[in-house]
Structures are given as structure tokens and as C-alpha cells.
Specification:
The complex is a heterotrimer. Chain A is an alpha/beta fold. Helix content of chain A is about 40%, strand content about 25%. Chain A has a domain at about 35-65 and about 75-220: P-loop containing nucleotide triphosphate hydrolases (Rossmann fold, 3-Layer(aba) Sandwich). Chain A contains eleven helices and ten strands. Chain A has a six-stranded mixed beta sheet, with helices on both faces. In chain A, strands 2-1-4-5 form a four-stranded antiparallel beta sheet, with helices on one face. In chain A, strand 4 and strand 5 (about 75) form a beta hairpin. Chain B has two domains: about 1-130 and about 240-265, no CATH class; about 155-225, no CATH class. In chain B, helix 7 (about 135-145) packs antiparallel against helix 8 (about 155-185). By secondary structure, chain C is of the alpha/beta class. Chain C contains twelve helices and ten strands. In chain C, a hairpin with a 2-residue loop joins strand 9 and strand 10. The chains are: A alpha/beta, B mainly alpha, C alpha/beta. Chains in contact: A-B, A-C, B-C.
């Protein structure tokens, strides 16, 4: 059997709405396993429950019912919660509101410091993490002087320095400009190549297309789960829940409607170009 | 523009003073301020002045830069000077109108007090000018640590200061943005009476508070995700270490205090 | 009524060591009724430019003439500028502050000195234009609404001032694909309904290509390129040099054209791209 780092069993998460006291079910009976070393993208509209699901993965939120296992540890086990959070790092949407210190390298050290690691070891980890995201030369700067993309890279370095086995990215590029978005996506892909399990929550279908597995969430449930090729094959279903499909998929669909037999596995612009010219 | 305001003034440099352990700087600054009030004569104050000017010179912070910091409290210095000058009874030196007199004691106290105040300001500004806010915070945390036995939350206080320092620029930028956005909707913050102006702040304050709460919530979440659980079992990357220079500085400070005490009680 | 921007220069923190020239002798014109896109990456001077158009910043030199009025003239009243030009900032929902939606939208019109009745009419109309129901939402707290709705309310707050020029600074930032499309459709509708000048600042080249009559490309405080989307997006080299990219469809067609000159490169919309590829495949057999 495959080796899964995350195992979610019948997860239900509800939160109380203030005014009427009614409970809103954000995640509704979700079961899921994430394979070690894989790259999974979770897409869905705002309010589809994807962010809530992400926060349940490292115990920032605890299930209303059901269980979440990280490396076999139940996130509800309070005695091991730090173990869980060290295993699954997290990077959030707003680059500003997740940096703690006034100096870049101190911020990256924050996680390892909390874990009680020896100072010399922290130094090594911080330097390594900053180099991995290409921000080593900015290590002495104040975060508020950096661009959004650079701040997000610092946040990623902060997660890397904790040596997690898995990182959950909660819409990390939503607030960035195109060049910041490109940088962050490249780093995410590199981290995955080095063996870190990646869970990427995003609105951008082009980003999702670079994952090995895509999960679509809608109204708290998993609507579809498969390889990008499998998912984008059913482009109508995606449009139905008001999400976009990559340009190549869109074009291929139109060509097919006009009687041209475009292969189903084309999902990227590069693949489409090759096919048209072949 | 709001962004141009420099809070917690730090004068970047790499002088001997800049490189001292922040704890030493905090302790010696406190000692220096105490000494200023122990010093009771010309020799004592002259020594104190000489010491601070030497330290300033070593720190390579321009004196004019420090003096600029004196401007806002210039009025207070003048005020205390005048009060002391006229209110201290004693041997009359000059008689003025309305029975106002300047006494010998009054003049002496007034001059000494003014000098003390100026030296006190220079001394404490030197501390912030030569120490990064973040090192200052670390220093305070470390010095307060022994007080943990009497439940002083040293780490928590230091963490609060760090976060405040980190988010002051963010909140200033946010304020700037919100002000401009409301101005674009025709808000006017500059005209009208005080009551009117106070009311015109609501469109800024409400969004600002909401922003601050949102930041707090997101930051708390991010800190928890990075295993933050208070100061217990926490290590630091840059553990503060006392070096030879720090001991020398400490010894010099002790010598200085010695001189001041001798001057007061034995001369 | 049009906009003439003539040789404006703006310098931040002049005389200080961190002095930066944000706008350097920028000139362009916008004609009445145009939908204009402004693109450029962070720090290109875009947002400084917008703030000049709205009178929030004054240029060091140069002038901005809107419908015959020089808004850089010190004698020009701010209220008159605001009446002419509405600026919706990025993430405008963060500026909401009133207890009810109706009162928040009314803030701008009231500041213009309109009467209660006029204000109410404007609020109704503006909420309608942004696609929200006045009756349903007027008494709700803006903070109870969904992200997309909040943003609409905030945009309504500027639309209610009936500006002759409506500037939208990245109105779709952070929204999901559906809300993104809805907001842009809304911008188009407002533009048609009001017949005003609309200026859209965006990083999304596909949106710019689809919506705009003309595009202004900013780089390092200069206007790097200006023209119709077709003209601007034909200069791929220049765009990539300044760190921008082509709309995805143009990118695809450029790549195809590079490898086979039979395929036309200057195509920006997906239907035309579909036809062109079909034609090519048909001829190829």
C-alpha cells in the first residue's frame, strides 16, 4: 500500500455563526489520504471549506467529529500537538500578517526557537532556509521594506527552517503580483522535488495543473479527486461550480465541439502547442 | 508622509558602543541616571558631562543628531530652570520687581537641575540610538528573567514589544491607505472645529481597528502554526554573550559611580 | 471630456537620502468614454499616478487637465476633483466603517454636499449598478456580507459620487474566479451605463486585453508603451524586458507563430484563436 503522511477520516468541522447561534458546517464528512512526497492542489470557491480543511491538518482547528492523523498521530492528542505542527508547516495568504520579527533572519528563526533547538543548529537552518528561497542577501533587512513576494518567501523560509515533512500553502499567491507569484510557485515546486509533501490551496487553475493530484471542494465536500488530466477532462463540471479551467483545456474543448479530435490529456499550453504543430 | 516618521530612533553604526551587549547598556544607562542624581557638586556634574561626551564621541553618533532630540523637551528644561531660579529661598543675589528674588541657592539648583536633565536625556537617547529596538527588547527580556519568580511575565512582555515594533510600520501604512481612501470619498480631516474633526476620525478609526484585529487574529494563527507556546523551553538563535568589551565598560561605569559617590560624601 | 496628463514628475522624500523619483515626466491623454487599462509591476509608478489623478498627491511639476479643469492648480477645490474623479483603491472593503450598507455608500455623496433625498437616490442607484439589492441590504451591517459583496458595497460608495472618471485599482485582487468575473462584468456595465471614462489597473493581462480600448504600460516612472491592446501586446520583447507577460491567448499564438509562420500571432480572444487553429489544422490536412 502507499505510504500516506496525512490521513483524514470523516472530518466534519462546524463553527458557530454569531447572530443566530446556528452552526455552519464548513467541512462536511471529508475523508482523504495524502501520499508522502506528493503534490496535491485543492481548488474551490471562497467558502468551499478548503481553508478550514487546511487548518484542520495541523491542529490549528480541531475536528467537530472525525479524525485527522499526521504521521499516525491524532491531531486531537494535546501532548503531541507540537510534533504535529512541526511535521506539517503552514504558509498563509497574507504575507504581512505572518511575520513576527523586525529582522528577516530572526523571523525565520522563530519556529526553530519555539521548538527549543540549539542556537548553532538554528543558525545553520536559518541560513539554509534563506538560501533555499533566494533571500539570503536580505537576511538583515526589516520585513516591511520587502515586496509582497519577498515577504512570502520569508514566510516559506520560516516554515522550511522547522524541517517539516509536509507544508500546507493556503492561497500563498492570492495577494501577489505576477512576478511574486512566479517566484513563489517555483519555490513550491522545488520544495516538492526535494521530497517535501505539498498541499497547495489555490484559485489559480494553472497552478493546480502543475500538481500531481487535484482535489475540488465545493460546499464542504470533495467534488472530484484525481490527476490534473482526469480532473480537467470533466471541464463542464468545473465550470458548473464557477471555477476556471486552464486555457489549453478551454481551447481543446472548443476545438472538440467543432469536430476536431484533440487528445484528452492536453492540459497545458505547451502540450497544446506541441499537438497543434505535430 | 506618515512613512517618514521614524519611531524608536536608532542611529545605525558599528562603533564600540553599538556592539556592546544590550543588557550592559541598559544597566549602565540606569546607573548613569542614578549617578546624575547622586552627584551634588560641580566636580560630580562636570565628570558626568565629560563621561557622556566621551561615550558619544566613541559611539560616532553626531552630537547635533542627539541635540535634535532635546528640542521637544526644551520648554520643560526652561520651565524647571525658571521655577528653581525663583522659588528656592536663601541668600539674595539679585532683587527683581514684585519681590521676586534670585538667590544663590536658587541659581545653583536651577543650573544643576538643567544640566542634569540635559545629561539625562543625552544618556538615555544614546541607549536607543546605539541599540536596535529588537536587541533592546532581548536585553529587557533577559534582565527581567530573574523576576519570573515573582510572576513578572518577562518573555511575554518582550514578545509584545517585538510584535509592536514589527507592526508599527504596517499599521502606519494601513492608516495612510485608509485616510487616502476616505479622502477619495470626499472626507475632510483638516477643517472644522475640534468636535467636527474628532468626528471625522471615525471613518479612519473603525477600519483601522478592524484591520488591527484581523492582523492580530492572523498573526496568532501563524505563530501557533510555528509552534509558539510562550517562553518555556524556547531557545534563541543569537544568544547574548558578554565579551571583554562589555566587562571593561562595566568596570569603567563602576569607577565612574565610585567617583560620584566619593565626591558627594567625602569631599 | 477627456484627461490630459502633461509632463508630470513626482519625487518622494525629496532631499532625503531615500529620495525616489516615482513619476518622471509622464504624459498621456485619455479620450472621453474610453476604457483604459494601466499595467506595470509593483513599484512602476502606477499607484502614484492614480493618486495624482485623484488629487491625493500633487506633482512636483506638470499638469493634469480633466475636462478642461487643471486639477493640479492650487486654486482647484478638492471637492470638485472628487466630483469628477472617483478612485477605488485595492481591497476597498477594508475602508467600510458605517453601521449599515446604505450609510456607508452614502458617505461620499454626503461629503459632496448632496441633500438627503439626492443621497438616497444615489445610494439606490449605485447599489443597483454594482448588482446588489438596495432593499435587501440597506440595513445590514457591511461586515456581515461575503467578501465579494463587501467589495461591491465599497465600489458602490465611489460610484454613488457619479464620477466622470472611475478608477479601479486591481478590483479583483484576492477574489475567486467567479467573483473575479462578476466584478469585471460589473465594471463593464457601469462603464456602459454611465458613459464615463473607466481606468482599470490590473495584473491580469487577459482582462486588460478583453476589456480595454487602450493600454498604458508603466515602467520605472515612465510610460513604456501605450496603444490599443493589439499594439501593446504585439511587442512581446519589450513587455518581457520590463517583467510583464502577454495574455495567455496571445502567448499561445506567439509561440505557435514562432514555430510556424502560417499561424497568425496577433490574436487575443479565445474564439479567434480557436478559428485560427482550426484553419491551420484544416489546411494542414
Amino acid at each position: 500500500m502507499n505510504d500516506s503522511i496525512l490521513k483524514i477520516e470523516n472530518l466534519i468541522f462546524e463553527y458557530a455563526q454569531y447572530e443566530d447561534g446556528e452552526n455552519v458546517r464548513a467541512v462536511d464528512d471529508v475523508s482523504l489520504e495524502i501520499e508522502r512526497g506528493s503534490f496535491t492542489a485543492i481548488i474551490g470557491r471562497n467558502g468551499s471549506g478548503k481553508s478550514t480543511l487546511a487548518k484542520n491538518i495541523n491542529g490549528l482547528l480541531l475536528p467537530t467529529s472525525g479524525t485527522v492523523y499526521v504521521n499516525g498521530i491524532d491531531t486531537c492528542d494535546e501532548s503531541q500537538i507540537w510534533e504535529v505542527r512541526q511535521t506539517v508547516g503552514m504558509v498563509f495568504q497574507n504575507p504581512d500578517n505572518q511575520l513576527v520579527s523586525t529582522i528577516v533572519e530572526d523571523d525565520v528563526a522563530f519556529g526553530p526557537e519555539n521548538m527549543g533547538i540549539a542556537p548553532e543548529e538554528i543558525r545553520l537552518r536559518v541560513d539554509e532556509a534563506l538560501k533555499a528561497v533566494g533571500m539570503y542577501e536580505h537576511r538583515k533587512k526589516a520585513p516591511h521594506l520587502l515586496s509582497g513576494g519577498q515577504k512570502q518567501r520569508i514566510a516559506i523560509a520560516g516554515a522550511i527552517a522547522m524541517k517539516p515533512e509536509c507544508i500546507v500553502f493556503d492561497e500563498p499567491t492570492a495577494m501577489l503580483d505576477p512576478s511574486g507569484r512566479r517566484d513563489v510557485m517555483n519555490i513550491i515546486k522545488d520544495l516538492n522535488k526535494e521530497g517535501i509533501t505539498v498541499v497547495l490551496i489555490t484559485h489559480f487553475m494553472e497552478e493546480a495543473a502543475s500538481a500531481d493530484r487535484v482535489i475540488i471542494m465545493d460546499r464542504g465536500v470533495i467534488l472530484a479527486d484525481g490527476t490534473p488530466q482526469e480532473i480537467f477532462k470533466e471541464s463542464d463540471k468545473i465550470r458548473e461550480i464557477n471555477l476556471d479551467v486552464p486555457l489549453a483545456v478551454n481551447l481543446a474543448d472548443r476545438l472538440r465541439k467543432n469536430g476536431i479530435d484533440v487528445p484528452q490529456n492536453i492540459i497545458s499550453t505547451e502540450e497544446l502547442i506541441e499537438w497543434v504543430l505535430s | 508622509m506618515i512613512r517618514d516618521i521614524t519611531l524608536g530612533q536608532y542611529y545605525p553604526g558599528d562603533s564600540l558602543i553599538h556592539r556592546l551587549d544590550p543588557r550592559i547598556k541598559i544597566i549602565t544607562t540606569i546607573a548613569y541616571i542614578a549617578a546624575l542624581f547622586i552627584a551634588d557638586g560641580f566636580i560630580g556634574l562636570a565628570t558626568s558631562a565629560a563621561v557622556i561626551f566621551i561615550v558619544t564621541a566613541v559611539s560616532r553618533v553626531p552630537l547635533s543628531f542627539i541635540m535634535r532630540g532635546l528640542k521637544p523637551i526644551f520648554f520643560i528644561i526652561i520651565f524647571t530652570f525658571i521655577i528653581n531660579l525663583f522659588m528656592i529661598p536663601g541668600e539674595t543675589l539679585i532683587s527683581l520687581f514684585w519681590g521676586l528674588t534670585i538667590t544663590k541657592e536658587g541659581l545653583r539648583t536651577a543650573v544643576f537641575m538643567a544640566v542634569r536633565l540635559v545629561l539625562l536625556i543625552i544618556g538615555s537617547s544614546l541607549l536607543t540610538l546605539t541599540t536596535k529596538p529588537i536587541s533592546l527588547t532581548d536585553g529587557i527580556e533577559s534582565l527581567l528573567k530573574p523576576l519570573k519568580v515573582i510572576k513578572v511575565p518577562a518573555h511575554e512582555l518582550a514578545m509584545m514589544m517585538t510584535i509592536a515594533l514589527r507592526f508599527i510600520p504596517t499599521l502606519l501604512e494601513e492608516t495612510d491607505k485608509i485616510m487616502k481612501a476616505q479622502q477619495a470619498r470626499g472626507a475632510d480631516f483638516e477643517s472644522g472645529n475640534i468636535f467636527h474633526r474628532a468626528k471625522s476620525l471615525i471613518p479612519i478609526l473603525v477600519p483601522l481597528f478592524i484591520s488591527a484585529f484581523r492582523i492580530a487574529q492572523e498573526l496568532a494563527m501563524a505563530m501557533e502554526a510555528r509552534c509558539y507556546h510562550g517562553g518555556d523551553n524556547r531557545t534563541r538563535m543569537n544568544a547574548m554573550k558578554m565579551r571583554a568589551g562589555d566587562f571593561v565598560f562595566m568596570v569603567l561605569t563602576l569607577a565612574f559611580i565610585g567617583i560620584i559617590i566619593c565626591e558627594r560624601y567625602f569631599i | 471630456m477627456g484627461i490630459i496628463v502633461k509632463n508630470i514628475t513626482h519625487i518622494y522624500s525629496e532631499g532625503l537620502p531615500h529620495e525616489t523619483t516615482a513619476l518622471d515626466n509622464v504624459s498621456f491623454e485619455i479620450n472621453d468614454g474610453e476604457f483604459v487599462g494601466i499595467i506595470g509591476h509593483t513599484g512602476s509608478g502606477k499607484s502614484t499616478l492614480l493618486q495624482h489623478l485623484n488629487g491625493l498627491l500633487k506633482p512636483k511639476s506638470g499638469s493634469i487637465i480633466v475636462g478642461g479643469t487643471d486639477i493640479t492648480d492650487p486654486a482647484c477645490k478638492l471637492r470638485d476633483i472628487r466630483r469628477k474623479i472617483g478612485l477605488v483603491f485595492q481591497y476597498p472593503e477594508y475602508q467600510l466603517f458605517e453601521e449599515t450598507v446604505a450609510r456607508d455608500v452614502a458617505f461620499g455623496p454626503k461629503n459632496l454636499g448632496l441633500t438627503e433625498e439626492e443621497t438616497e437616490m444615489r445610494v439606490k442607484e449605485a447599489l443597483g449598478l454594482v448588482g446588489l439589492s438596495y432593499d435587501e441590504l440597506k440595513d445590514k451591517s457591511p461586515f456581515e456580507l461575503s467578501g465579494g459583496q463587501k467589495r461591491r458595497v465599497a465600489i458602490a460608495g465611489v460610484v454613488a459620487m457619479k464620477p466622470e472618471v472611475l478608477i479601479l485599482d486591481e478590483p479583483t485582487a484576492g477574489l475567486d474566479p467567479k467573483a473575479h468575473r462578476d466584478i469585471l462584468d460589473m465594471a463593464e456595465e457601469i462603464h456602459e451605463h454611465e458613459g464615463n471614462i473607466t481606468i482599470l489597473v490590473s495584473h491580469n493581462m487577459a482582462d486588460i486585453a478583453r476589456l480595454c480600448d487602450r493600454v498604458i504600460v508603466m515602467d520605472k516612472g515612465h510610460v513604456a508603451l501605450a496603444g490599443t491592446p493589439k499594439e501593446v501586446f504585439s511587442d512581446e520583447k519589450r513587455l518581457t524586458d520590463i517583467g510583464l507577460s502577454l495574455p495567455p491567448v496571445s502567448y499561445l499564438m506567439h509561440r505557435l507563430n514562432e514555430r510556424n509562420a502560417d499561424i497568425k500571432a496577433d490574436i487575443m480572444d479565445i474564439d479567434a484563436a480557436c478559428r485560427e487553429i482550426q484553419r491551420f489544422l484544416g489546411e494542414k490536412g
